[in-house]
Design goal:
alpha/beta; 5 domains; binds adenosine-5'-diphosphate; binds zinc ion
Length: 741
């Protein structure tokens, strides 16, 4: 009897395994290799999967095997190292392999579309368009700008190039097209690659490197061609990006590609244009705001090598590269690099593993490295490169603690702070105020009876928002009109308690009449383009005071800010999650980094009710490195990551009892499997037990070594799938969780 040889295919499904299929009839076995997409029957439907293994003995009875319907690719989409990484990730994060591959593919390829660029459009001015004077469109500045831009490209520009320009041009383009001033011409795909008309000109002269920058660049360049991890630890403005650019320059000259990963919020048009200005090559940009065809196009340019530089957010860590040369993770501490739902992977951690498999260096850069990465550097796993000074002539801001205890306050602002703002405004500077809480006030309280407006579906208070006055839940998004009367006692003395950005804005308007204030938070920037225009007003000097949430803390270059104030440092000191203080320290340092970026010296004021808190003192008086040292000691003493490893199992259901019951069973199952060196903590209700009408509970697994933890998960997760109590809850496994809420 001959053994039937089959293919293992990763098919999107919640099941933690691949599926067996017969090769398609009349197919040449030579053409079947891992990394190809195939269309397969699945249940009663058809779906697209990725071949993981070929010519392997079947795991199921012959009669039940079905053949592949169609092979969708000529060549594998993923090379060996990337295939290995994806399979490793499915195993390590205990996530179904089909869903892991789906996460790695652009939507168009997931649907089975061909992996080539469909005819590429190029947009150009029509004869009518050429005759239009852009100055005739004063009320449509976008259209005018686009007309002017297109006038510089007689051959037209592609959708891809358009997407890479600063701002969103799709609307303006559509309007110009309907007016008949702009038209698209389809190009054969071959003519569109390589994309030589990209705006890169390579004309901006790089600055001479400082000593520490030079050492960092030399160190990384010397490692090209082999695996080595680097932690590039440099204060904001110390020239980390300049180091990346120099290193990438060397990578490109060697004919290889650079993959740059950034948190969503760090992927600003300024960053992209900085890369484009430096390198006269196409830069592929991958982020969540792209249309399916834009994403496919950027993905294909990365894979073919047509784009030597690839910049993207989280999931770009899975983008195939023709000739990988280096991986860079900027703002490596940023929690948004971790995917928080579905396939819960950490993009930074996978970047390191990917570099290892390709045998290329990886650079993790940050002004405030994660404690994990600092620990790895201390252990000698990464080379620690420090840029202690700001580049050019910029000077470090000094930080001053404002002790709030027993001081008079005006809506969250101390007198000392108000005075400070006044002085800086008088001296011609700008002030930036950081408060990580949007809305008017986080609480609406009845002064008669103590009732507090709460969300009907969450264990959370409703935030009062002005503008169009509403009460909103920041957990589930629910909202309703503001109560005029207390529903409990009928009292009418309802008072907003505490401050959000809207309230601070109002105080400032009262206090500094006539001074232009820009509030930057998720509410004020909801409409597309508003963030850019608020930042432009800030940079032009029009806005003198900026008040914002963490949106304002990152990356934006605001050269005239001379005063930075942290309104509430205490938010992070006593948070529920063990990483709360690390987060707060990172935010404080990032936001302080906005001050004095140019030649103007900056000042940083930090308001707190805990001026003696040792972590806060270490941070503000000695700097982030000292803070991190102490925080690491605390983690060590408490047996927390990075000294131990965690896995969090979350469960939720419409009743409070079901998640706990499931997790109790799960715990018992783990004990039966022999948890050994793994500690089981819980189950307990989540810190916010009810959210969006569902009750949540969690079970924490903790171990000194990853090995035993992974061995347990390997038998335990499949067992969880068979638990009866699991059918009544939604549950998930989070390996190396970044928050435990
Ligand atoms: P980071 O990424 O660490 O915040 P950047 O690379 O953005 O730092 O540098 C901050 C500013 O200093 C930028 O305007 C950059 O052009 C400039 N810069 C960087 N390196 C140098 C240098 N060696 N000499 C002068 N200016 C520099
Ligand atoms: Zn009341
Ligand atoms: Zn809610």
């Amino acid at each position: 009897m001959s053994i039937q040889l089959v293919l293992h295919v990763a098919v999107p499904s919640p099941l933690h395994r691949t599926f067996d299929y017969l090769p398609p009839p009349h197919s040449d076995p030579q053409h079947l290799v891992p990394g190809l997409r195939v269309r397969v029957p699945f249940g009663r439907a058809r779906t697209v999967g990725v071949v993981v293994e070929c010519a392997v003995p079947s795991r199921v009875a012959h009669a039940r095997l079905r053949p592949v319907l169609e092979i969708l690719d000529q060549e594998p989409l993923f090379d060996g190292p990337l295939m290995a990484l994806l399979l490793w990730a499915a195993d390590y994060y205990h996530h179904p392999p089909g869903e892991v591959f789906a996460a790695a593919l652009p939507a168009a390829l997931r649907r089975g579309q061909a992996a080539r660029q469909s005819g590429l459009r190029r947009w150009h001015l029509t004869t009518e368009g050429l005759a239009i004077d852009p100055r005739r469109l004063p009320r449509a500045p976008r259209q005018a700008q686009l007309l002017e831009h297109l006038a510089g490209y007689p051959d037209g520009i592609s959708d891809h190039e358009l997407a890479a320009l600063e701002g969103d041009w799709r609307g303006a383009l559509r309007t110009l097209a309907t007016r008949g001033w702009v038209a698209a011409q389809e190009m054969a795909p071959s003519a569109a690659q390589p994309d030589t008309s990209a705006p890169g000109t390579g004309d901006c002269a790089p600055p001479a490197l400082g000593e520490a920058q030079r050492a960092a660049v030399d160190g990384i360049r010397a490692a090209l061609g082999a695996f080595q991890g680097f932690l590039l630890d440099g204060v904001t403005g110390s020239g980390k990006t300049e180091v990346y650019l120099r290193v990438i320059d060397g990578v490109l000259k060697a004919g290889r590609q650079a993959l740059v990963l950034v948190p969503e919020i760090g992927l600003t048009p300024q960053l992209v244009s900085r890369f484009q200005r430096r390198f006269p090559v196409p830069v592929a940009v991958l982020h969540s705001g792209l249309s399916d065809s834009e994403r496919l196009s950027a993905w294909l340019m990365a894979r073919s090598g047509a784009a030597p530089v690839v910049i993207g957010t989280r999931s770009a860590v899975f983008v195939p590269l023709h000739a990988p040369g280096i991986v860079i993770v900027d703002e490596e501490h940023d929690p948004s690099l971790k995917q928080q739902e579905g396939f819960r992977y950490h993009s930074r951690d996978l970047a390191v593993l990917r570099a290892q498999r390709h045998r290329i260096p990886v650079v993790l850069g940050s002004a405030t490295p994660s404690l994990e990465s600092l620990h790895n550097a201390r252990q000698g796993r990464y080379q620690h490169l420090v840029l202690p000074e700001r580049a050019g002539n910029a000077v470090h801001p000094q930080a001053v603690i404002l002790d709030l205890r027993r001081r008079p306050m005006e809506e969250g602002l101390s007198e000392a702070l108000l005075q400070g703002i006044g002085q800086h405004l008088e001296a011609g500077g700008q002030a930036l105020l950081f408060l990580n809480r949007r809305g008017y006030s986080p609480t609406l309280l009845c002064h008669e009876c103590g009732w507090v407006a709460g969300c009907a579906r969450c264990d959370a208070r409703l935030t009062l928002h002005l503008g169009q006055p509403r009460l909103r839940c920041h957990q589930c998004g629910a909202e309703r009109p503001v109560d005029r009367q207390c529903p409990d006692c009928g009292g009418v003395d309802l008072r907003p308690l505490g401050q959000g950005t809207e309230r601070v804005e109002q105080v400032l308007l009262r206090h500094f009449p006539g001074v232009a204030i820009a509030r930057i938070d998720r509410d004020s920037t909801r409409r597309k383009g508003t963030l850019e225009s608020l930042l432009a007003q800030a940079r032009s000097g029009h806005s003198r005071i900026l008040i914002g949430t963490q949106m304002l803390a990152k990356g934006h270059h605001l050269p005239d800010v001379t005063l930075v104030a942290v309104l509430d440092a205490d938010q992070g000191l006593y948070g529920t999650d063990f990483r709360a203080s690390e987060r707060m320290a990172q935010l404080i340092v990032q936001v302080a980094g906005r001050a004095g970026r140019a030649e103007k010296p900056g000042q940083v004021l930090v308001q707190t009710h805990h001026p003696d808190h040792p972590l806060l003192i270490a941070l503000l008086q000695e700097g982030y490195a000292s803070f991190a040292g102490r925080a690491l000691e605390e983690r060590h003493a408490a047996g927390l990551p990075p000294y131990t490893h965690m896995v969090l199992v979350r469960a939720e259901a419409p009743t409070a009892q079901a998640p706990l019951a499931f997790l109790e069973d799960a715990r018992a199952e783990a004990e039966r499997s022999g948890a050994g060196a793994t500690r089981l903590l819980g189950p307990v209700a989540a810190p916010m037990e009810r959210r969006a009408g569902r009750y949540r509970a969690q079970l924490l697994l903790q171990a000194e070594q990853r090995g035993p933890l992974q061995r347990l998960l390997r038998v335990w997760v499949p067992a969880l799938e068979t638990l009866k109590s699991g059918r009544r809850v939604r549950w998930s496994v989070d390996v190396d969780p970044v928050d435990t809420l």
